[in-house]
Every structure is written in C-alpha cells, then in structure tokens.
Design brief:
By secondary structure, the chain is α+β, with helices and mostly antiparallel strands. The protein has 12 helices and 14 strands.
C-alpha cells in the first residue's frame, strides 16, 4: 500500500484525535488518497491523511464491477482518481418484503401499510445497482488482505441525468482540500499544555513544535512575507518557552541542568523550519551562511518561472497532449531558478497556481496552461 500522505512523526497522540473535526466526520476524499493513506501505529482501523486521523469516508463514483452474495453486494467504485471496493450489506427486511407487508387501497382511502411497502420497495431498488450506475457510499475503512475497502453504513444509487451532482461535488472537493484536509491538524494550546511534561519531555517537544509551526504559518500568510531570516521570526516563539521556574525552597530561580532560554528558542525554531521545509511551505534558494528562506506561495519569481516552463514546453510536440510531467518541471525550474528547490516546494507552488487558474493538471503528475 502506498504511503505518501505524511511521515509517522506527524501522528498526534490518540487522546487528542477527537479535537480534530475530521475525525468524527465522513471525510470526502478522492479515492486515490483513500488508497494511499497510512494506518495508525497506535490504533488499528484509524488512518491518516496528512496528520488528520479518520476512519469514515464519503465516496461518490461510478460502479465498474459488481458481485452479489447472500448478505451483501460488493461494488467497485471509480471516481476517476482510483477504484475502491465497497461492501454494502443487504437489509434483512428486504428479503421477505413482498410477503410481510401486503396492504391495499380501498375506495381511495389512504393506506399506511401500502405506502410503507412502496417506500421500502423504492429504497430496495435504489440500493440495487448495475455497472455504470452512480453510487454514493458512506462507511468506515478497513484493510483486508492488503486491500483497502469501505464497509458501507449507507449507500444509494444517485440519479444524475445532467451530471449536476457530480459537477457540484467536483467543485466542492478542491475547496475542502484547501480549507480543511491539506491544513495540518493543530491542537488548541490549552490542550497541549495540559498534556505536557517537563521542558525537555517528549510530550512537551511535540506540543511546542505543533504550536510553533502554526504560529509561523499564520504569520507568513497574514503578512504575505516573501522571504525571511530566522532572526526575523524568532521573537514569535518566545511565548512558547517557559520562563525559569523559581525554586520552592530558596525563592530563587531554579538552576537545574538544561538548555538556556535562548538555546531552547533557537532549537525550536530550527526544528520548525525543518518541518516547514519538508512540507514545501518554505525553501532556501541559495545555500549560504546567510540563512534566507523563501515562502513558496509568496515567491513571485518562482511562480513566474514555473508558469514560463509549463507555457513554453507545453507547445512542444512531446508535451502537447498530456502537458509537462512534474519531474520535467522540477528539472527545468531548478536549472532556471534554483538548484535547491525541493519537489515538495514545487508541489505546493503547482497547487497554488492551479487554484489561481494559471495552470491545470491533466493527470496526477502532468500540467499544462489554460
């Protein structure tokens, strides 16, 4: 099973999962991402998209294969990004539906039993699909024999003759990803502090790192910072480091062994910048003693270089049909703009350009201009 939705270090403690709204919701993810999500190391049956814990999904797609058993239907659902197996259990009341309720109308009198029978029959028909039908499934995820599946809690055939349901969902999904799924799960400060130990404990380190990443991201976005040096943002992390604790016996400050306040701030900032680089949010154009970081989405020169590469090379016969592959774009931009540009930073920039309708993805990894 592919595992590119984040590293194991991104997994928050299980006691805090309920603070993430995604955890208790039916996540509307692309099937490709559902198939690639990694399973939790702490609790089997829980999966992570980025660092969002979830176990329930909402899928809409076309039935591409069907198997029927005595107790359930097995549908293969394709949403154009991938195909996933959906186990849809039959309702027990459908089996003897025809014999159990036999109402009839007399003289135009409304018959409750008859109407109930018709309603149940319509529900039964709506859950019997054929290849080519549009199916919506909600359910929990499981991995059986190394195959990711959905155990449906509800499912039904969608009538969509003019494709308005599919188009509406297609427009909603990118917005959901931008506003929710692709944003990291940040635990509220009060909860983090409640779970911390001493200043050097693992729980405190994890919480401080999560808070500092959130603070820097919000600052860079709010101020639209194109580039910065570590000392420009160091002061933002000062409130996260606890002041020296007075000794209870002497009333003087504790002199217990440990890093000083400036050292703790610098170490926290160093780890935060590493994490932001791994996510592609920032990058260093030139590796030099002067640590200058560029903010990916605010670097207009980088965005212009990417647009130019895709615009120029899409005209070539080799890339005319599908567009430029992401590795080709990465190689060209490295030659034209910065050798130190990471693939993660390029992916962030490509998503930003696509959201602004400057480019369009023709496949998972090919891009062209509009």
């Amino acid at each position: 099973m592919a595992n590119d939705q984040g590293s194991a270090e991104d997994e928050p403690p299980s006691l805090l999962w309920g603070l993430d709204p995604v955890f208790s919701a039916y996540a509307r993810l692309y099937i490709k991402d559902i198939l690639q999500m990694r399973e939790s190391r702490q609790v089997p049956g829980i999966y992570f998209y980025k660092n969002h814990p979830l176990f329930q999904v909402d899928v809409l797609g076309t039935v591409v294969y069907k198997r029927e058993r005595e107790d359930f239907y097995c549908y293969g659902v394709d949403d154009s990004t991938g195909v996933i197996n959906c186990l849809c259990w039959k309702d027990e009341k459908w089996r003897n539906q025809g014999d159990s309720v036999r109402g009839s109308s007399h003289g135009g009198v409304f018959n409750v039993e008859e109407q109930l029978r018709k309603l149940c029959e319509a529900q039964r028909i709506g859950c019997m699909l054929e290849i080519g039908d549009l199916l919506r499934v909600r359910g929990s995820l499981k991995t059986s024999r190394e195959q990711r599946e959905i155990m449906a809690s509800s499912f039904y055939k969608v009538s969509d003759p003019v494709m308005d349901v599919q188009i509406a969902r297609m427009l909603d999904m990118p917005q959901l990803y931008r506003d929710c799924y692709n944003k990291p799960f940040q635990v509220p400060c009060g909860e983090l502090e409640a779970g911390t130990t001493d200043a050097g404990g693992p729980s405190n380190i994890q919480s401080l790192l999560g808070q500092s990443v959130c603070i820097l991201k919000e600052f860079l976005k709010e101020k639209e910072v194109p580039k910065f040096r570590p000392y420009d943002v160091e002061y933002l992390l000062h409130p996260l480091i606890r002041s020296p604790v007075p000794s209870t016996s002497t009333g003087q400050e504790s002199t217990s062994v440990g890093p000083s306040f400036p050292t703790q701030v610098k170490n926290l900032l160093k780890e935060t910048l590493k994490l932001l680089q791994r996510e592609g949010e920032i990058f260093r154009k030139v590796l030099s003693p002067d640590e200058l970081y560029h903010v990916t989405e605010q670097d207009k020169d980088l965005l212009a270089a990417i647009r130019d590469v895709i615009r120029e090379d899409s005209k070539r016969e080799k890339y005319a049909e599908k567009g430029c592959h992401i590795l080709h774009v990465l190689s060209s931009v490295r030659q034209r703009y910065s050798r130190n540009l990471s693939r993660e930073a390029l992916e962030v920039a490509l998503k930003f350009l696509e959201c602004n309708s400057d480019i369009i993805s023709t496949t998972d990894s090919h891009y062209t201009v509009l």
